[in-house]
Amino acid sequence: MNYVSTRDKENKVSSSFAIAHGISEEGGLFLPEGIPALSKEDFNKLKDFSYTERAKYILKYFLTDFSEEEIDKCVNGAYIGTFDNDLPAPISKLGEKMNILELWHGPTCAFKDLALQILPYFLTISAKKIYNGKKSVILVATSGDTGKAALEGFKDVEGTEMVVFYPQNGVSDMQKLQMSSQEGNNVHVCAIKGNFDDAQNGVKKIFTDNEFKKLLAENNMEFSSANSINWGRLCPQIVYYISAYVDMLNNGEDLENGFNVCVPTGNFGNILAAYYAKKMGVPINKLICASNKNKVLTDFINTGVYDRNRDFYLTSSPSMDILISSNLERLLYLLSNENDAYVNSLQKSLSECGKYSVNDEIKEKIQNEFYGGFCDDAETANTIKDIFESFGYLIDTHTAVAVNVYQKYSEATNDERPCLIVSTASPYKFAGDVLKAIGKSADGDKFKVLDDLSLATSTPIPKPIEKLKNAKVRFTEVYSKEDMYTAVKASLNLM
Ligand SMILES: *Cc1c(COP(=O)(O)O)cnc(C)c1O
């Protein structure tokens, strides 16, 4: 299977090239030329498989220049012995309709582990094929969870160096400590004065800077990316939607008329993976795109106008505080019938004017497939409280945004189908806000807050978070966004 760029479909590459490079030369995103379809027999087979077997079965369709042995090695390394009970994506049922897909049982307690545990394996194999022996330099911009998950996946992975940028005031205390205490000899963590979009733009700029690439080449290095623009991130996310579908079948859910999926969305990676799963044959009806107060996607789905010229809010769901959702570019490419020139014009308008509007045909297609909704921090807190009081089940702030928007969707449409609601983080990653939401005070230091939450809800603190009580801070540097070049050079000893 070939991969093409959203901005130049004549640019055809292999899956390992797409993964090793992360982004295409002209700034586009790689995606597979076609979407494989699974048959009823395929789904029947998958029913009896473990998660790792399902992952191997599905990834083979996409990574056609990986040998079977290589795929086995990637999947086993990523998913055996790294997630609670070796179950990366279990479902908890709440009431009649809500199936909560818990994607936070990995080493950093957020859904990004499902992709970032496997990406280092993909990347080292790809880099061997493509760069023969050069070191891969991975730059990451993070709104909190990606950074830690990437650091944890890549720490001490031979042939890689990683530099992570996070917005100084845009992540939770726990996220900050998780990153600044990261161990590993090949990892570097920098706070920047700015928001997530500043970090992401800075990384994109360095990434496509020819001077900088030359400097790296002279030092036997090459850029790669672990951000969700990398196909190697997106591809393993498709697996858990397919896996969840067969689990729901196994659980005896009535899926005759399909089911809906609701995803708390930031960069549009996770929900795009659900869209791919749908195109592969999973009977998904609506893709419900849930946003917080930074509701640029809600507005886009409802009006066809994407406009980032607006106030930026820091919310209680910081991993969704994003105004430029990079992965939307892949959807636009697919919905415009692979019209790379059209995608180019939209992206040009976005970078020059901060906005674009899609034509009526695409707008209609988007509204057929997606429903967009949002909620603010007060509604998020109320939802956490409601769900805890009704079901004794604790959710984090991001998952609460999804539950809230799902409830709005149900009310607006009377759609009775079951819903798969994606739970993207452990409540303990956002313990202060969660504790306040259930009506307790969250005074005291961040570790007391963990204990208080555990006591108040009779739920255990996840081990990776408990462990932070003894963590030592290694990284304290804060850079202005103009100094990101300097930060990368310093981290790589290229000064
Ligand atoms: C990254 C993240 C999101 C947003 O996912 P996207 O793929 O960027 O849309 C939502 N919730 C949590 C907890 C996250 O870490």
Gap between N and C termini: 41 Å
Q: How many individual β-strands?
A: 16
CATH topology: Rossmann fold
Ligand species? pyridoxal-5'-phosphate
Oligomer: single chain
Q: What portion of residues belong to β-strands?
A: 15-25%
How do the strands line up in the largest sheet?
Answer: 4-5-15-10-11-14
Structural class, from secondary structure content? alpha/beta
General description of the model:
- The chain is an alpha/beta fold and 495 residues long.
- It is built from 22 helices and 16 strands.
- A hairpin with a 3-residue loop joins strand 4 and strand 5.
- Helix 1 crosses helix 6, helix 3 packs across helix 4 and helix 3 packs across helix 11.
- Pyridoxal-5'-phosphate binds next to helix 12.
List keywords for this structure.
495 residues, alpha/beta, Rossmann fold, 46% helix, binds pyridoxal-5'-phosphate
